[in-house]
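Z., the sequence and structure:
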Amino acid sequence: MKITLVSLLCLLSACAVKNKHATTDFFQSVTVDTLLKEKINSRAIIPTADKVYYAGGNGIFGFVNYADKKKTQVNIDVSKNPMEFRSIAKTSNAIFVLSIGNPAQLYKYSNDLIEKKLVYKETHDKAFYDSMQFWNENEGIAIGDPIADCFSIIITRDGGNSWRKSTCENLPKVIDGEAAFAASNSNIIIKENDTWIVSGGKKARVFYSSDKGNHWQVFETPMVQGLEMTGIYTADFYNSKIGVIAGGNYEKQNDNFSNKAMTFDGGKTWKLVGENQGFGYASCMQFVPESNGSALVCVAGNGLYYSHDFGATWTMLLETKELYTLRFLNKNTAIAAGRSGVFKINFN
């Protein structure tokens, strides 16, 4: 049977669930354990070996330990300027959180969240930052919606102590109505020096850089596009060649066509998969580790889905509208977060 979060009772008791519709020889059940039960509205997480860092609404971010489920949480005063974090990134000695909206503010914290520094601030009516990642200990990138005719891209080369905004002269042009979605901190994907950024709205495209954001190429996709809430909401790459994008139409969340596609050439070309199969709107897609790129898990608008065949067919393992984002710890364990907390999910 499936499990539902209508009452959250099942999640809170860490129950194991068998899906009667599962037909694969791979994942057929999940066990869900609640690490943090709180209305944090988190769309950005970073799991480590012993804890998971999360960022959410109302100026909240923090971490919770796996072993004792003890949380350490920061609440930035948002009484004057409502603040919501949709982006989080980590180096070995620092945590970075970036707020959406005006003013956009990027904070650098020590791993224990005691030391704090505001390292970037941008004031503009159109400011809206969607995602952030690091290439290495010194270099990182964040992306925001266009203010002019290009994405807002800020880059650090000094470990996050200072950030510089790229000029539109050095970036690909976007069309009017093309932007990014801050759905799960997964519309920037990094593999070594390779970087992919995905867009939605009037166009659904993939922006690619082979040199850590110095030069960019743009590739078309067959994803649904043309309306404000259509396009690519999430992406992942298994390696430099195999990648996946997903999304759909947020206003028609049951539409399960033209909402997921795969690439096998590093993003240059994309082919729709799973047409009229599985989920509609998707907020987060991730490759299962050690699967050679064939296995995928997707956080959709109505549940958690699994594919073992490069996205051709899908099985719902968990029925819920509570989750927004997910990251794997290993091939059988993931951390997920959303509207009402942070959870550990074991795939069986």
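Confidence is low (pLDDT under 50) at residues 1-24. The radius of gyration is 19 Å.

Let me know what you think.
H.
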